[in-house]
């Protein structure tokens, strides 16, 4: 007969911390798995809307630009709450109802926005790429249902045109699956009417057979990192104009993201967000650039413009950020500063310190911000967001507080939390203590241009401030490359960030 | 030959090691050369009255070991071996066994009983040996007492060995009749009466029908109650054990007997010897367990439809039950707090009082308070301790409104007692009671806090001081601090009241871990566990201090790895310490890794930390491996793609973990870590996938591996597929058939018990997560057509899950998600299949209107994906 199990002694500790650790780990893993699946599914849902912009023409957000409403009045509370809760995941049908500033905010949220370089990162030569930012408009290129749409940073439509991007023109048989997307991050250069592709985040499509072989080769290659390292030690081939549009039995919708260069009317593609459904959001920059180069040329998107391909797409030359690379990128031509990409950075929407922009007079016409008339104001101007508590903050996450408006002033001026306000930085300037902003001498100018979706970022304000007072020089960048090599063996120090 | 066997069996028990070893060797050879003849001669030896009892007994034991083993896979092998044995040999063996039941040697009889039960355990489920019960029970009344005893003992073992559904009701009736008659007061032989009582304990599970028959149930209950009054202690004890088993198996039938049972148990608790009194208390603990379960299940909302109504036996007995239990609290043993295994009437009484409080809630308080007030200040330590124990015991169950005023009054007294009481026993219980106060009555969910700005300083000072007391008191003080910290876990990133004391608390806990006597009363473990909880519940304010802990703990871990030439005892202690230190690092990694600024700084230690974890794998301790593995999983999650650089070195330990069938916890955790690494590395895990997949497939097909590891392995397939996308192609031909056959097995499990259903649902969830990951992984690839052949089966699986109606919410959520993933990836190709599927529409509609928002979310997704697949 089996002895009856003794009861667990009541006074002994009930907890086994090991069991608890195990359970917490399992919960974390299960949550991460759900997140990964949710992410994979969500990608399709987010793009689904982009795929059918014509489905509900009345609600196309870009048409609403002229009538920017106070969104408190315009939007039902419910919608607003859901939107605030999780902009990446919320229902696509609700996204299609977004208008005005909310719509712009949503689309603008899909781009990775570089911070301004206010100090030189460590390991610049080892961990970073550099490329010249073509002067032009940063945009997101989406080709869909036989048409290609580029959207500006603020979400408004720049161009709607046919392109050789998969499913970017009606010219081809569109009988195939429409479930494929690509998103490219570009700069449109107006004068040569070219989109310069600077990044690629996603690519989708079952049927582009001539991509498949390379795709397979690429993924099967276990030495990926070394190969792309090797690849990037040489400048990018710009494009191969001889290539013809490959025969594709099925054509797909493709969303992209670019900079439009007005003077040459070119989209410079700066990143690829989605390519044939493979989400590249979570890939490192290294990986995405490899893709960009290997895929884009083959589609014929780099070919000279034609009836079915109104604008040229170009790859931007990307260099390793060593002395040679930095100097090559710096060589003057019509461009707007340098962009630095951390090799390990994933495509992260919103402001990120892993992509940095830097300018001086030599490589940009727009070092110091101009006002709406193209004049440089005598005092630096900043745009800040008014918070519920009267604080004036930047667009960073978490926001940086620059100042405060008292309630009386807010009421008197008819301002509301969420308003974007323009200020001048007065004689007092910005003062810093231990590298942190301590005080800003602000003078209220008025509400900002209504087409703006965001306040300025902290790094932009500081960069502009430095540009006026003590700019970070190109020589500083070169010097840091030299010194960071010297310091390579230095043991890393622990920095407390309490 | 026969003579030889006797000698070998005797030699196998010789004092001389070489003789013994030789004998064991010859037995082994004999068994390998000719198994049937080996087993036959063993049975012959056991049944031969002329042989020495020592050789007969050993023959029986070897026979028993040839039929059963602890490890599940070995057990299955032995069952198959027996079933395939020559029938005539088996018949001879069984005849020999039955014959032995009438042997004059008690050891031979008893051994034969056990072997018969093992054979029955194998044969009855296969409808073999149908004559066994009849053979045992024929003319049982005419048998001599010693044979009757052996027969009843055999029936008891058989009932323990086989499940009730393989025995006909007719035979059950015969067994119960014989057993209950053997228990009856009219049975003059007390040995027979004892084995009959024990046999009833095992046979109770067979008596469903008999307990539904009033007359038969009355008879069984009367006989059991009478047996509790037997002059033999062992019979009384066994009879109370039967009552305990009846209280849980037939709770709903107890009503007519409960008054009598109360009288019997009260008398036993008061007057009987401890083994009997413990069982009498256990009866009430068991009734509490039942009522707590029932009340939990129905949430106090009973209707005529409820399966089992609550009879509120505990509530009705309360006025007499509580004083009876309080009385037991005064019967403490000296030094029971130092003895890990101690179990006595005072401990059982306190445990039961705690269960009573959980069962009846507020009502218990007024019955216990007078006892506390009367005894808490008495000079006799027993009274003070009993009063404190009583207070601690009722802190879970009654409402906070009822308890908080009392706790506010008592808190100061307890803090003083913890410092000043001269008796260790009282201090131990006091610290434990403080811990219970913090566990149940402190936290953000409670409106009126018992810990305030005014008293927190004093509480912490006292607890830290008490951590310098003797080990058992210090350990309880750590426990109290653990719950104190836990109460602040919702503080989030805002300020925590513990912040001003953080440094001091951590310092004190580290000091405890270094105490010479920290090995006693699991003090060191408690100190690390408390440190972990303090870290888990810390806020951003104290992140720099948590960060300072990292090099400290790493240094400690480093020192354990450097220790040389340890005795096996010392090594075991080192391994235990390594486990604790890895556990602590794991908690810190998870804490600091959860916010970007701290993660950035903390990751500078990642290389060194990883190197230490890898060295821990050199030890042979499963616990240390498990802890190191968990810590590495957390590190991979924090490091993301950067983790790739550790893979070449880490891989072999990963593989080792996946091969560890024996310590299946290690294997399970390693499987989880593979998932972490997939999500961290994504495609960079590809070079390691061949090895990992091979191992996982081996694990799945092994019958040695604990079944609980299998569902997570399926989920892990999904993680891998999601990470490597269409490169999963080459594994499809292996993984898919396995998923299919597991899916088929898990689709229909009618008649399974709750455990089996729970396991089946976790298996289904794993299978579905695998499908989800594979479909999503292939999404957008040119190879989606490779998945087409599997789609009908997946849809069929979803159909049958929907039809069976026994999925839990987690499975519903995953299942409807798979439907969406299938549609999403296969697109228009899957449209017709989905439209043909019998239940996908109903299933989807049901999920769309589910109360569970996670299910609704998945269903919305599936709806979207399906509408696209069907419209194209």
Automatic annotation (TrEMBL), chain A:
GO BP terms: snRNA import into nucleus
Primary localization class, coarse: cytoplasm
GO molecular function (one): RNA binding
Pfam families for this protein: SPN1_m3Gcap_bd
InterPro entries the record matches: Snurportin-1, Snurportin1_C
Taxonomy, superkingdom: Eukaryota
Localization per Swiss-Prot or TrEMBL: Cytoplasm; Nucleus
Chain segments carrying region Disordered: 1-21
Domain Snurportin-1 m3G cap-binding: residue ranges: 110-229, 256-355
GO cellular component, one term: cytoplasm
Keyword terms: Cytoplasm, Nucleus, RNA-binding, Transport
Keyword 4Fe-4S on entry: no
Keyword rRNA processing: no
Family: Belongs to the snurportin family.
Known function: Functions as an U snRNP-specific nuclear import adapter. Involved in the trimethylguanosine (m3G)-cap-dependent nuclear import of U snRNPs. Binds specifically to the terminal m3G-cap U snRNAs.
Protein name as it appears in the record: Snurportin-1
Originating organism: Morella rubra (Chinese bayberry)
TrEMBL record, chain B:
Importin N-terminal domain mapped to chain residues: 23-103
Keyword annotations: Cytoplasm, Protein transport, Repeat, Transport
A Gene Ontology BP annotation from the UniProt entry: protein import into nucleus
Location in or out of the cell: Cytoplasm
Keyword Nucleotidyltransferase set for record: no
Gene Ontology molecular function: any one: small GTPase binding
Major site of localization recorded for this protein: cytoplasm
InterPro entries, per the entry: ARM-like (IPR011989), ARM-type_fold (IPR016024), IMB1_TNPO1-like_TPR (IPR058584), Importin-beta_N (IPR001494), Importin_beta (IPR040122)
Statement: the UniProt record of this protein carries the keyword Metal-binding: no
GO cellular component, one term: cytoplasm
Pfam families: HEAT_EZ, IBN_N, TPR_IMB1
Family: Belongs to the importin beta family. Importin beta-1 subfamily.
Protein name: Importin subunit beta-1
